[in-house]
Specification:
nucleus, 31 strands, WD repeat, mRNA binding, WD40/YVTN_repeat-like_dom_sf, four-stranded antiparallel beta sheet
């Protein structure tokens, strides 16, 4: 009778046994009997292998992670000789006696003198002793014939024989016979001449002598002519300038000095009277310099053209508003131009260069008017801004001095000698009664004009060198580019740092990138080492814009004084760009 309804008695037995899936009917795998310890610990000589090679494999392929092989290799296969080329890097030895990676090295010890003697002998005579201790090695390296000729001697032991010296020695003629006064064999005593020193006797007539003298003079003139080298273009006295244009004057007789009011009426407006904005796009590119541009200066008051000084030794004057072309090129230096500066009216400008000269130029005619120099490299030049002192300029030199020149006389009228490093910048403040200088000695010094005594000395342990300084349009502050990647602001009346105003976030990376101000003083800008121009808000100190302008460092830039958002940038890639 079925105990579980719906199931037969056999099925009930399966339920009772608990083997529902029939696992007990499967053939059981052989298990190691644990109770028999002797059999359990016995090692199996042959591993479990495939009974036959199903894939007919002739080669054994194993993975690096495999720990056992499932194929029995025949004894004949295992005993086969190794085939194929020998591995040259098998045991890292190529020679039988190799004891180093590159070959065989023997240790030797010899004095510097012995080594030098062998080295010179090999260089001059072509052989040297073999220092090897190998008994089979040759005794001499190099030319064996030369060694045998010189008796295997080194250069320092080689001496000329007595006979050789006798042959080389100059021979004196015989003293002569006392009895003979004149002619052959006459007595000359200790005044006997040397053999081979006889003067060549030319018995020439007067005409021939005259002709020969003329020939000699001509030869001398030719020699003098060949010695004179052509002076370099731009050397002292060789200054030139090239005007790039069809005519110097327009139909009204005006030169490029007069501002183009018709093309740019905004030139008549007052500087800084309009609100300024940050430029966004490049609207013009000036090309012409073959190397990096180091300095640019806009024309005073109007700013309708600008000067650029370059490492290609040239100074160029460029037009901004009419055609945007190069107006004139000044060839006046033989090395890279470091700085240029206009006089108040812009009719003249000064340039200084690494060729250790300062030159005064006429902007309109391109003529070099005067040259100055004291043998040191000038790093910065500045005209005195007062109208009655336009004949005076200051130059910061590489010998730590600031030199004051009078252009009328060409004399040095004052020397300001306090800095401990080359002078980088000169900035006039306080109605031009004082000026501030910075130097590689990481200090800022303020001076009264014409008095060579420092009135203010700013030096802190945390200060870095400040190679670029710009005056704020209000004339109340000046901003200094510090080489620890920040711009610091100082007051012009008491020369104290304004700690609230600090502009950072750019990387000048050791370049003297010029600081710029918008004409209304609302924006402060600087180039950086990566080719960007960074703009900050003067009030808040926040970065407002970062403009990718050039492929190399933007060393200098200038805001146009009568425009709201035009900036000229110059870089070491040789390009000058106008942005708006």
């Amino acid at each position: 009778m079925a105990l579980v309804p719906g199931y037969s008695s056999d099925e009930e037995e399966v339920f009772a046994s608990g083997d529902v899936f029939g696992l007990s009917s499967l053939p059981a795998a052989k298990k190691v009997r644990v109770n028999d310890t002797a059999k359990a610990l016995q090692l199996e000589a042959a591993p479990n292998v495939l009974s036959e090679d199903l894939l007919h494999q002739t080669s054994l392929v194993t993975r690096p992670t495999d720990t056992q092989m499932n194929v029995n290799i025949k004894y004949d296969d295992m005993m086969l000789p190794s085939q194929g080329p020998e591995n040259p890097f098998g045991d890292r030895k190529r020679f039988l006696n190799q004891n180093a990676l590159a070959g065989h090295v023997e240790e030797q010890s010899m004095t510097d003198h012995a080594f030098r003697a062998q080295h010179l002998t090999h260089a001059i005579l072509g052989y040297s002793a073999n220092p090897s201790i190998d008994p089979n090695a040759p005794a001499v390296l190099g030319s064996l014939d030369s060694a045998q000729t010189n008796g295997f001697s080194t250069i320092d032991t080689l001496r000329a024989t007595k006979n050789q010296r006798k042959e080389l020695k100059r021979k004196r003629k015989q003293r002569g016979d006392l009895d003979i006064v004149e002619g052959e064999g006459a007595y000359v005593g200790p005044w006997a001449s040397w053999e081979g020193d006889e003067p060549e006797n030319h018995f020439l007539t007067g005409v021939e002598v005259g002709e020969e003298e003329e020939e000699e003079e001509e030869e001398e003139e030719e020699v003098v002519k060949t010695k004179k080298a052509k002076p370099k273009r731009g050397a002292p006295g060789q200054e030139t300038s090239v005007f790039h244009g069809k005519s110097m004057t327009d139909y009204q007789g005006r030169t490029y000095m007069s501002p183009p009011v018709a093309e740019a009426p905004n030139l008549l407006q007052e500087v800084g009277s309009q609100d300024c904005f940050i430029p966004k796009v490049c609207i013009h590119t000036w090309t012409g310099h073959t190397q990096g541009v180091s300095v640019i200066r806009t024309f005073p008051q109007t700013g309708h053209m600008f000067l650029s000084g370059s490492m290609d030794t040239k100074i160029k004057l460029w037009d901004i508003y009419t055609h945007g072309n190069c107006l004139r090129t000044f060839h006046g230096h033989v090395k890279a131009v470091k700085d240029v500066t206009f006089s108040n009216d812009g009719r003249q400008f000064l340039s200084c260069s690494y060729d250790r000269t300062i030159k005064l130029w006429d902007t309109e005619t391109g003529q070099c008017l005067k040259r100055f120099g004291n043998g040191k490299i000038p790093y910065v030049v500045r005209f005195h801004p007062d109208q009655d002192k336009q004949h005076i300029f200051l130059a910061g030199m590489s010998d730590k001095k600031i030199i004051q020149y009078d252009m009328n006389t060409g004399d040095i009228t004052q020397e300001y000698d306090q800095h401990l490093g080359p002078v980088n910048t000169i900035t006039f403040v306080d109605d031009n009664r004082r000026f501030v200088t910075t130097s590689d000695d990481k200090t800022i010094r303020a001076w009264d004009f014409d008095i060579p005594v420092v009135i203010k000395y700013i030096a802190e342990p945390h200060m870095h060198s400040m190679p670029a300084v710009t005056l704020h349009p209000s004339n109340r502050y000046f901003a200094a580019q510090s080489l620890d990647n920040q711009i610091l602001v100082y007051s012009t009346d008491n020369f104290r740092q304004n700690r609230k105003k600090r502009f950072a976030g750019h990387s000048v990376a050791g370049y003297a990138c010029q600081v710029g101000f918008s004409p209304d003083g609302k924006w402060i800008s600087s180039g950086d080492g990566e080719g960007n121009v960074v703009f900050w808000d003067w009030k808040t100190g926040r970065i407002k814009s970062r403009l990718k302008a050039h492929s190399k460092v933007v060393i200098t830039h200038e805001w146009l004084p009568h425009d709201t958002s035009k900036v000229i940038t110059a870089s070491w890639d040789g390009l000058i760009k106008l942005w708006d």
